[in-house]
Design goal:
heterodimer, A: alpha+beta, 2 domains, eight-stranded mixed β-sheet, 13 helices, 32% helix, B: alpha/beta, Elongation Factor Tu (Ef-tu), domain 3, Rossmann fold, six-stranded antiparallel β-sheet, globular
Chain lengths: 370, 275
């Protein structure tokens, strides 16, 4: 068993060795890459494909990449995707039914073909969201076999956040900026390289194969300082980590009408939210009449169909749909999973086409807090 | 066992209850699955129509005979309209049972009042049938049915039959009666004056939320405890296994904690528009 508590130092020039070691262990690597003007998770073969010196300028309704001239590869906060699409597929087959000529039906489950996957560059907010999705899909009364398959094959290389965006507020939710759990390897970026730590047996084993030296005291001091600065830089916060009582006491607050005037009910917030789990099911029958595919697809509480109930819609307007999203995310999540469903990633703020700010709405309804 | 995967099921019989309401009597085709199937009144199944999709339907038959599963359905949407066209020997899919049923053990030895607002409220038919099959284990049974218009009342023969049974009362109300309407004219709660509620009475409600709220208010005013008023909630359901998020009602997933709740559990949010 390799040593577990030693911080190692990985020079930037040797980052490819880490990727090679992951490949050698049979894993496909997925890492942050620039595509269509955003940082997305995509297959990585060489570290030269990582976003060198790229910084993301985020604001309500705004996401833009800038080049800082630095050599750093993780000097950005986050892109629109979290880990969610890698585990809870946006659209997938659940089962297939074959109908014979005599009308009999045969149901066959369709489990995803999964390869071992390593994700590099996972943020603290996304790890917190992963833990919540695990609770929802794996640890409830029914285990989701589709999610479970992918989850079992996942290796996570987390990277501490040194450059939070203006939309970030993970410090106020208690989830960042430093990854605290659920990773296999943690990297913290400095100008010359990375302070690395193992977080699981697999992670320790992987680091051991690289033959790295220990990180120096100065390097440890610097990552600590950067993490503290990343906390101090965050300009947004939620009024409290538990807004359950305040939200449900204010179901008739006039702010719901106000936000409904601005909200387009487009569902962008629920798509980029790393914890939103709603999905709908549908059938796709083959034209030959002998087979049908049963699929599930991400759904959003902002759609009309989400609350449709034989002939009427329970939440007929944007006011009730926004209220459902916020009271669930920041309120009833506490009843369901023992904490808020918000991990402070700020994606719903940046990717909202009209720039609705969840922290601002929460403060308007619940009071600004301490 | 994959909780999303249906099992093949055969239509044994199809009964037309009204122009739009029908009952499918179903049997799982796999003997082992059939043998191990157990359910409680008030629980529901996800019934799958080939090529169209699934719909949550309450089981109305008696849990003592889980071989045959009766589902009373109103043809209203895509799936239920398709289901209405099925006939004996047709095949479909079924997953279940899901959810929490009626607290019938808790109600044993006590008077039970069953209140339905609207048409063909299948979840409480299961309660009525259950009690009638075990008559000596319960006190007086009062069946209260409310409809909007007199001509909407279905199952008139069934009410007449129930009324003739010992220890059973049937009270019917229509918001709008008609020239030959023999029953109460007004809201269903208007007949509560004629019922002798005691602190030992258990009440089971099914219907639109505003009606259940009004009923619960009147019942608590008459001394029925909030823990003894039970009601069946409805929300959109897709997965039935607490994953898809559609059936959320405040903190609860109706498919799992419900569909039957005590009034005490849902009182703060019940009947509030848009929840």
């Amino acid at each position: 068993m390799p040593k577990t508590n030693v911080a190692l130092f990985l020079p930037r020039a040797r980052l490819q060795d880490l990727v090679d070691a992951l490949h050698a262990s049979g894993r496909r690597c997925v890492a942050p890459r620039v595509r269509d003007g955003a940082i997305v998770y995509d297959t990585l073969t060489n570290v030269s494909e990582l976003p060198v010196g790229v910084h993301d300028a985020q604001a309500p309704g705004r996401y833009a990449l800038e080049h800082s001239g630095s050599d750093r590869l993780f000097a950005w906060a986050n892109g629109p995707q979290a880990l969610k699409p890698l585990l809870f597929a946006p659209r997938e087959s659940l089962w297939r039914v074959v109908r014979s000529d005599d009308g009999s039906l045969q149901f066959r489950e369709v489990l995803p073909k999964v390869e071992p996957l390593a994700v590099i560059g996972v943020r603290a907010c996304d790890l917190a969201a992963l833990a919540l999705q695990d609770q929802h899909f794996l640890h409830g009364p029914y285990r989701d076999p589709y999610y479970a398959r992918r989850r079992e094959q996942l290796f996570l290389v987390a990277v501490g956040c040194s450059h939070p965006a203006a939309t970030c507020f993970c410090a106020s939710t208690g989830d960042g900026p430093r990854p605290q759990h659920s990773y296999d390897v943690l990297l913290e970026e400095l100008d010359q390289g990375y302070v690395g730590r193992g977080g699981s047996t697999h992670g320790h084993e992987l680091l051991a194969t690289l033959g790295l030296g220990s990180a120096g005291d100065e390097q440890l001091r610097l990552v600590q300082e950067e993490s503290e600065r990343a906390t101090a830089m965050q300009i947004r916060k939620l009024p409290s980590r538990d807004l359950r009582a305040a939200l449900f006491a204010n179901l008739d607050h006039e702010r719901w009408d106000d936000v409904a005037q601005r909200c387009l009910s487009c569902g962008n917030c629920t798509s980029v939210c790393p914890t939103c789990f709603c999905h709908s099911e549908q059938d796709a029958p083959a034209l030959d009449g002998h087979q049908s595919e049963h699929l599930r697809e991400w759904d959003s509480c902002f759609t009309r169909g989400h609350s449709y109930l034989h002939g009427f819609t329970v939440r007929p307007d944007t006011r009730s749909r926004y209220r459902q999203w916020l009271t669930h995310k920041l309120g009833s999540w506490h009843d369901q999973y023992g904490r808020s469903g918000c991990v402070g990633c700020g994606r719903c703020i940046a990717w909202c086409p009209v720039g609705i700010d969840l922290t601002e709405e929460a403060a308007a309804i619940c009071g600004p807090g301490a | 066992m994959n909780p999303y995967l249906p099992r093949e099921t055969e239509v044994v019989e199809r009964l037309q209850e009204s122009p739009t309401i029908f009952t499918l009597r179903l049997r799982l085709t796999d003997p082992a699955a059939r043998g191990s199937f157990r359910f409680a009144p008030g629980q529901f199944n996800m019934v799958y129509l080939y090529g169209v999709g699934e719909v949550a339907i309450s089981i109305v038959s008696d849990p003592h005979g889980p071989d045959l599963l009766d589902h009373t359905i109103r043809a209203l949407g895509r799936v239920t309209n398709g289901l209405s066209k099925l006939k004996a020997r047709d095949r479909l899919g079924l997953r279940g049972p899901f959810g929490r049923g009626w607290p019938l053990e808790r109600a044993e030895g006590r008077d039970v009042v069953v209140v339905t607002g609207g048409l063909g409220c299948a979840p409480v038919v299961a309660v009525i049938n259950y009690i009638l099959m075990r008559r000596q284990r319960f006190g007086r049974l009062t069946i209260v049915q409310g409809v909007k218009h007199a001509e909407e009342l279905i199952w008139r023969e069934r009410y007449a039959y129930w009324r003739g049974l010992p220890g059973v009362r049937v009270l019917i109300a229509a918001d709008e009666g008609g020239p030959l309407w023999p029953y109460h004219v007004g809201l269903v709660t208007g007949v509560f004056d004629r019922i002798d509620f005691t602190p030992e009475t258990a009440v089971m409600l099914c219907g639109p939320e505003p009606m259940m709220v009004a009923a619960a208010h009147l019942l608590t005013a008459r001394g029925v405890s909030e823990e003894d008023i039970w009601l069946s909630m409805e929300r959109n359901m897709q997965c039935a296994v607490r994953h898809c998020g559609h059936c959320q009602f405040g903190p609860d997933f109706v498919c799992h904690k419900g569909p039957v709740f005590s009034y005490a559990e849902v009182k703060p949010l019940l009947g509030r528009r848009g929840l």
